[in-house]
Specification:
30% of the residues lie in helices and 20% in strands. By secondary structure, the protein is an alpha/beta fold. It is globular and about 55 Å long.
């Protein structure tokens, strides 16, 4: 699928990130330039016996190889190994000390189903993260409908947690799933720290 000059096939991750972190709304699409960091807390996700609120950083990574966002084949064409992303230099900073990866793709663009393999390889497999630390979000843009039919995901992507999001039809569904994901990340980090402390003691 090709976009026409002046338009682009986008995944909707920035709008979705704003919604999930309760940041300001974006009404006009502009490709994310490099990395955008969102700091937030969620009242439903706490840590420790005292129920201390957890602080999160969500790093919104741009994948647009074209500075203007125009005349590109599709937004994530940069993920093809032959076409390195112009923001690839930012990736090491994103990967360092990250505890989870959320891969957002345009569920209405078949080419995205293949290109998310690159994201998974770079940000999950190569960083030795567990599959439980990765969440796939098939995002449906407003007006596109929300067909939740079976997506043809290749192994090992078909083993990952997959949720559909449509902020127009059912925004609460993705919010609930995201909270579940955050809780699983907090538990994973807590268990890892407990193991480290036990190894020091013993």
């Amino acid at each position: 699928m090709e976009s026409q000059p002046g338009t682009s096939v986008w995944s909707g991750k920035t709008v979705l990130a704003n919604f999930l972190t309760e940041s300001s709304d974006i009404t006009e699409y502009n490709p994310t330039q490099g990395v955008r960091i969102l700091e937030f807390e969620n009242p439903h996700v706490t840590s420790g016996d005292k129920g201390t609120a957890c602080e999160f950083e969500l790093w919104d990574c741009g994948g647009d190889p074209n500075p203007t966002g125009r005349n590109q084949k599709h937004l994530t064409s940069a993920l093809n190994p032959v076409l390195p992303c112009r923001f690839e230099s930012c990736w090491p900073a994103l990967m360092k000390d990250s505890h989870g990866v959320v891969i957002v793709f345009n569920a209405d663009t078949p080419s995205h189903l293949k290109e998310i393999d690159m994201w998974y390889s770079c940000f999950v497999q190569q960083q030795l993260l567990q599959d439980t630390q990765c969440l796939l979000i098939a995002h449906h843009k407003p007006g596109s409908g929300s067909d939740k039919g079976n997506l043809s995901l290749s192994p090992p992507l078909n083993k990952l947690k997959l949720v559909h999001s449509n902020l127009e039809d059912d925004p609460e569904e993705i919010r609930v799933e995201f909270i579940k994901y955050l809780k699983s990340i907090v538990n994973s980090v807590s268990e890892s720290r407990d193991r480290e402390e036990m190894s020091i003691i013993t």
